[in-house]
From TrEMBL:
GO terms for cellular component: cytoplasm. It comes from the Eukaryota. GO terms for molecular function: coproporphyrinogen oxidase activity. This is coproporphyrinogen oxidase. It comes from Bondarzewia mesenterica.
Length: 332
């Protein structure tokens, strides 16, 4: 599975970068760099940032990583709460080898009418000892969500419909359960609102007991079956987002709209730094590349004290979005 995941995320990265470069002949290509991690493994970062050119994308990252090393006893204890096959009270000298591979995508368009989008698909496995290839735990996780500054219902419906279609191919209960998980996760309690209009999110999909079964039976699911589900979602990324970007990227906008876009980005940063578990995990990991952990940050954002934009009592487009962010809707 390590080799299959590595091959897949490499191909997916190449296809997404090529598609994004193909929609904008004004912009330079993505900057792609390979990197290595001293503790084991490495990755390839394909990033875009173009302040000097009026490009479609303002900042973007399509990054992959395949890392390996050993889990500390505190990390083992934490993971054991989700995976019964891991020891809940490991000795202080415990060393369980792990492998983690995944792809992370974040796109921030320049035009306020075009939404930002985020996706992350990953695989992790833990083996019994440094000298053993016995896998004692494995799981897949994933998430994708749409974060608009201005609400276009047809965009929300398109994004969620593509995701629902991808989920439905593997089980009728998956989309609605994973949509709720996404809505619950991307919530900013101190603002009383969600980061965006959601998508889907799942974690710890493995052969261990889970209320959602990909085929509707009680048998354990195989790594190949869940990997096929993850590939369906990864393959759906471009079809879920590119039509939206192409519809909105050349629409006119003014200074007020740009100001609101930067305010919404500020709210997204609040979520990332205060609540996002992946960011906290990444910054705490030994030998981490901080730039890659924080690649989701936009180049520009804004905070205003008691801003009048988006106040619930007016009938503006900004307030229309705020209302939806406070109460998630069904789009598909």
């Amino acid at each position: 599975m390590r080799q299959q995941v590595t091959g897949y995320i490499t191909r997916l990265q190449d296809s997404i970068v090529a598609a994004l470069e193909g929609i904008d002949d004004r912009a330079p290509p993505f900057r792609c760099q390979s990197w290595e991690r001293a503790e084991g493994g490495g990755g390839r970062s394909c990033t875009f940032g173009c302040a000097q050119v009026d490009s479609v994308l303002e900042k973007a990252g399509v990054n992959i990583s395949t890392i390996h090393g050993t889990l500390s006893p505190p990390a083992i204890r934490q993971m054991s709460t989700e995976h019964a096959s891991l020891p809940s009270d490991p000795p202080n000298d415990s060393k369980l080898p792990f492998f983690a591979g995944g792809i992370s995508i974040i796109l921030h368009p320049r035009n306020p009418n075009a939404p930002s989008v985020h996706a992350n698909y990953r695989y992790m496995e833990v083996t019994a000892s440094p000298d053993s290839e016995e896998i004692v735990a494995w799981w897949f996780g994933g998430v994708t969500d749409l974060t608009p500054a201005y609400l276009f219902e047809e965009d929300a419906e398109h994004f969620h419909t593509v995701l629902k279609r991808a989920c439905d191919a593997h089980g009728p209960a998956l989309y609605h359960a994973f949509k709720k998980s996404c809505d619950d996760y991307f919530y900013i309690p101190h603002r009383g609102e969600h980061r965006g209009i959601g998508g889907i999110r799942f974690d710890n999909l493995s052969n261990e007991p889970h209320p959602l079964l990909l085929d509707g039976t009680s048998r354990p699911r195989t790594p190949a079956e869940i990997f096929a589900f993850v590939q369906t979602l990864g393959d759906a990324f471009l079809s879920s987002y590119l039509p939206i970007l192409e519809r909105r990227m050349e629409m006119p906008y003014d200074d007020r709209m740009r100001r609101w876009q930067l305010l919404r980005r500020g709210r997204g940063i609040e979520f990332t730094l205060v609540y996002e578990r992946g960011t906290k995990f990444g910054l705490a990991a030994p030998g981490v590349n901080v730039e890659n952990v924080l690649v989701s940050m936009p180049e520009e954002a804004r905070w205003e004290y008691m801003s009048e934009l988006g106040r619930e009592q007016d009938d503006s487009e900004e307030s229309r979005l705020t209302e939806v962010l406070k109460k998630p809707q069904e789009w598909a």
